[in-house]
Specification:
The chain is an alpha/beta fold. It has one domain: Alpha/Beta hydrolase fold, catalytic domain (Rossmann fold, 3-Layer(aba) Sandwich). It has 12 helices and 8 strands. It has an 8-stranded mixed β-sheet, sandwiched between helices. Strand 2 and strand 3 form a beta hairpin. It is globular, with a radius of gyration of 20 Å. It starts with a strand and ends in a 15-residue tail after the last strand.
Length: 339
């Protein structure tokens, strides 16, 4: 069962969020050292001042609602998704999956160029049917009853594409957890004809172990040492973290902003050289309005229960055509091509 959906957050929910931001006890916060301890205090003060005095959620809501939104009951939960049908005679179905701490907001600027390239100096023959779901437990999709990982989410999304929407084949793109979901789609689901990812979240059991690979593995461990705290918490005790975040919009914002700063190719830690306050806040507000910070973090726990990064103990690989975008500040640096 698929039905149309529109974002329309209740006024009392919005007002409560703003009230909590206004009441935050900044005078109790210790001095920091820029971004080196975590989210920069001066930036958070500036950010929250903008939040309560200039940010307009309703304006952002209208921008999001320009696209066609739906919910579809898939197996046992409702999946929310944007479905923008492409121009031209035969647009290619393209499933785009976000990650954590992201949302559908990440893709708003690329929907129209992908679906209607002729309006952006492109060729109408290159159009896609663009399908962008909220991951289960994220945003406007239902919360699963317990943690699930990217493999299970891939199954939901394949059913969405084939059963709910009736596509016989499709392409999958994803970043962060969306890359893991896309990898599972390409690995296990025949309707997925090709994938595009920007982060290597999955692997086979034994990669090459030459000098180049060993050097990469050594540097990878060093890189992860200072970035692994959030992942350890969310993959082992996500419930504990959720108690504080449920009642602290500033806490949720700080937790998310630090990741957007660390994982973006910023200039001198200037997060707004990449992300505007409005785009950051729109993404954060989706977590707050839907109260899904907790269940969104479950994906880390769910992936651990699914077996971690290994696709197959038998060493099987993704065999469908695969493309990758290698950006300079990704959390997980890419291994050598031989890997």
């Amino acid at each position: 069962m698929t039905h149309p959906f529109k974002l329309n957050a209740p006024d009392d929910v919005i007002n409560k969020i703003y009230s909590r931001v206004k009441e935050y006890p900044w005078h109790e916060m210790p001095d920091d050292d820029g971004w080196s301890y975590g989210t920069n205090l001066d930036y958070m003060k500036e950010f929250c001042d903008y939040w309560i005095n200039k940010f307009n959620w309703r304006e952002q809501e209208r921008k999001i609602n320009k696209f066609n939104h739906f919910k579809s009951f898939v197996e046992d939960i409702n999946i929310h998704f944007i479905h923008e049908k492409g121009s031209g005679p035969s647009p290619i179905p393209l499933l785009i999956s976000h990650g954590w701490p992201g949302s559908i907001v990440e893709f708003l600027e690329i929907i129209d160029p992908l679906a209607h390239p002729e309006k952006h100096d492109g060729n109408i023959e290159d159009a896609f049917d663009v399908i962008i779901p909220s991951l289960p437990g994220f945003g406007f999709s239902d919360r699963p009853s317990r943690p699930i990982g990217p493999r299970k989410m891939a199954k939901y999304f394949d059913l969405l594409m084939t059963n709910s929407l009736g596509y016989k084949s499709y392409l999958a793109q994803g970043g962060d957890w969306g890359g893991a979901i896309s990898s599972w789609l390409g690995f296990e689901h025949q309707a997925c004809q090709a994938i595009h990812i920007n982060i290597l979240t999955m692997r086979h059991p034994e990669g090459p172990k030459g000098k180049e690979e060993e050097e990469w593995a050594k540097n990878f461990e060093i890189e992860q040492e200072m970035e692994n705290g959030y992942r350890t918490q969310q993959s082992t005790k996500p419930q504990t973290l959720s108690y504080s975040m449920m009642d602290s919009p500033v806490g949720v914002a700080a937790w998310i902003i630090e990741k957007f700063n660390s994982w973006s190719d910023t200039v001198d830690d200037d997060i707004e050289s990449i992300h505007s306050k409005d785009s950051l806040l729109t993404n954060i507000m989706i977590y707050l309005i839907t109260k899904t910070f907790n269940t969104a973090s479950w994906i880390y726990y769910g992936r651990r229960e699914e077996g971690g990064r290994i696709l197959s103990p038998e060493g099987k690989r993704v065999e469908v055509p695969t493309a990758a975008a290698l950006f300079p500040a990704e959390l997980l640096s890419w291994p050598p091509r031989s890997y």
